[in-house]
Amino acid sequence: MTHSIIKYGIIFFSMVLIQVLILNQIQFSGFVNPFIYILFVMLLPLTIPKYLLLPLAFLLGLTIDVFSDSLGIHAAATTFIAYLRPVIIGAISSRDKENNNYPGLKQNSIQWFMLYTVAMVFFHHMVLFFLEIFSFSGLFYTILKIIVSSVFSIFVIVLSQYIIFRD
After folding, report:
1. What are the contacts of 96-103 at 24+ separation with CB within 8 A?
2. What is the pLDDT of residue 29?
3. Considering the entire predicted model, what is its pTM?
4. Which has more confidence, 156 or 2?
5. Contact 32, 152 (CB under 8 A)
6. Number of domains in the chain
């Protein structure tokens, strides 16, 4: 239990530091905004209860909002994907085939992890960017921004699974 708390605490603070100090400084032509801090929500155990998952996601998003001065849009988007997480996991896998509690790449197939990552990142970015612009006037620009940022974020998340999260 204590080992898990320490492990996820380190992941939480690492994701916040990487996002705030490095990735928030990267922006290519206004389109590519990599947001990999959601990896914390994605890597939480599959059996985590919602009463713990939702506040952790909100706290993560709020922490990013505080450092990014973004008025709660990260908190809303991160809480949204935490709410959808059980639905997404249920849609892409059957519980009778599950043999582990960790949704990482090494513990699951590449197909499962890619479906999981694409769904989580796309929904996060969709909510985040539509809340950011809060208008349909730039609809095509926003959709393009969602797609390009999602592709880059997915690439970085999958790469991190091969480099960092090998346990």
Report:
1. 98/46, 100/46, 101/45, 101/46, 101/47, 102/43, 102/45, 102/46, 103/42, 103/43, 103/44, 103/45, 103/46
2. 67
3. 0.90
4. 156
5. yes
6. 1
pLDDT, tens digit (0-9, with 9 covering 90-100), for 14-37: 999 999 998 888 777 666 888 999
The residue range of the domain holding 125 is 2-163
Give the H/E segment covering residue 163: helix 139-163
Report which DSSP code applies to 24.
Answer: G
Calculate ∠ Cα 75-80-83, nearest 5°.
125
Between CA 115 and CA 132 the distance in angstroms is 25
**Averaged confidence pLDDT in the chain:** 88
| DSSP character at residue 104 | S
Instruction: Give residue 23's pLDDT.
Output: 84
- In sequence order, the 6+-apart residues with CB closer than 8 A to the CB of 45 are 4, 101, 102, 103
CA-to-CA dists, residue 11 to 5, 15, 37, 94, angstroms: 10, 6, 9, 27
